[in-house]
Amino acid sequence: MPTTTRERLIVAAFDLFASQGYDATTVDQIAAHAGVGRTTFFRNFASKEDVLFPHHDDVLREVDARLATATPTTRSSALREGARIVLDHYLDEGDAARRRYRLTSTVPAVREREMAAVHRYQRLFARHLAGWLAEEEDGPLRAELTAAAIITAHNHVLRNWLRDDRADLIEEFEHAIGIALEMLGASPPTRTTVVVTGGGDVETILRDVREALTRAP
Amino acid sequence: MPTTTRERLIVAAFDLFASQGYDATTVDQIAAHAGVGRTTFFRNFASKEDVLFPHHDDVLREVDARLATATPTTRSSALREGARIVLDHYLDEGDAARRRYRLTSTVPAVREREMAAVHRYQRLFARHLAGWLAEEEDGPLRAELTAAAIITAHNHVLRNWLRDDRADLIEEFEHAIGIALEMLGASPPTRTTVVVTGGGDVETILRDVREALTRAP
DNA sequence: CGCTAGTACGGTACTAAGTACCGTAGCGAA
DNA sequence: TTCGCTACGGTACTTAGTACCGTACTAGCG
């Protein structure tokens, strides 16, 4: 098993945090448990909290790249999918995400770090949005509001999932993002062609459309 | 001048941070500059960062009290005035707020602390809003979105002011809060109408519908 | 007046995070 | 082999934060 030193440190840290608690675990213990020296820990992670958020930089780059591909007509879905990248990453982490959540709920220092991470995502979205809305009235403000809405909706769904595993997570996510974007302003009319009358979110509408289309000629 | 020890510590800390920078200033220096022992510092402030945010607890209580007085017909103004309480507090601080801002802009540890403080306000707003929207569909999510919008609008105006003093601050604030609430207040469309002309099989149409719906909020 | 209880303070000693620096083992390329 | 690079371990240090103890001051009460 050629696991890298960095990964061994992450595993060791999560194990010790889970068994002893965060505050009661020292960096020396983490390093020892991973079979390396203390210096090596700080070479891989800038602080004790950082070992809990080892992938945010990668995910940030991913989201940044996705948002950068947006065109004026695809911005809405770029925002959706940008947020989905973050959500999916948490899902991929699986149990680790849940163990970390338990820490963020109880340890102030970890919670602050988590908030800092969230803030970076929000600023990333806001930066792209600011570019998109540069011409509009109150562009910078609207950019920040939209970014805040997306992050808030994302976190809302994520927290629900972290608390108790639920099956319809993706649907919930689409619903929440839909509400966030819908609350934020009317979109220009599109030149689309199909139709549906009826209420509900995207998934509901799609279900209705599918039903109508498959039932009719 | 019967200034209390706590206040002397605050003044000493701000002075030293301004002259030497945050990291280069030790708690010992702050205590010595205030003419007290190191122990006394930690009796008054839980941490070195805390001395920079000495009044948040009071303001939080104030805002809490204001929001608690809201009736179903006055909620909008309660939100406005709740945010105004926070803004006014920063204005009262005057130069101290601006000196702190300089630190939050440059020192990561201070910035994280600031974000934690902001988060407490947002959660306070969200808590009240959640109570107000308890009956509504997606109440908790909408509560968080609204709280996020208010805090974001507030911070947007505040940051502008902290960067460069501007005269029409209050007007800007009302404008920003207005946009935030307006964006959120817009009643969600109860009927969604999408029109598709043209043929194609069911799956093709469904794909078009999905694309249209996800592209335009 | 003397006595007592509470409060604020100073000092000492300790733990642990984070930094700086030095030395060294491995490893691929010239 | 030798050079250069990278990763690692060890030591020593600074500083935030905690725990604990002793003491001065003050208010209240006999």
What would you note in describing this structure?
2 copies of one chain form a homodimer. Chain A contains 10 helices and no strands. Chain A is mostly helical and 217 residues long. Chain A has 2 domains: 5-51, Homeodomain-like (Arc Repressor Mutant, subunit A); 53-183, Tetracycline Repressor, domain 2 (Orthogonal Bundle), CATH 1.10.357.10. In chain A, helix 6 crosses helix 7 (108-132) and helix 7 packs across helix 8. The longest helix of chain A has 25 residues, at 108-132. The radius of gyration of chain A is 21 Å and the shape is elongated. The relative contact order of chain A is 0.08. The model of chain A is unreliable at 186-194 and 213-217 (pLDDT under 50). At the A-B interface, helix 5, helix 7, helix 8, helix 9 and helix 10 of A face helix 7, helix 8, helix 9 and helix 10 of B. Chain A binds a DNA duplex (30 and 30 nucleotides) through residues 5, 26-28, 36-40, 42-43, 46-48.
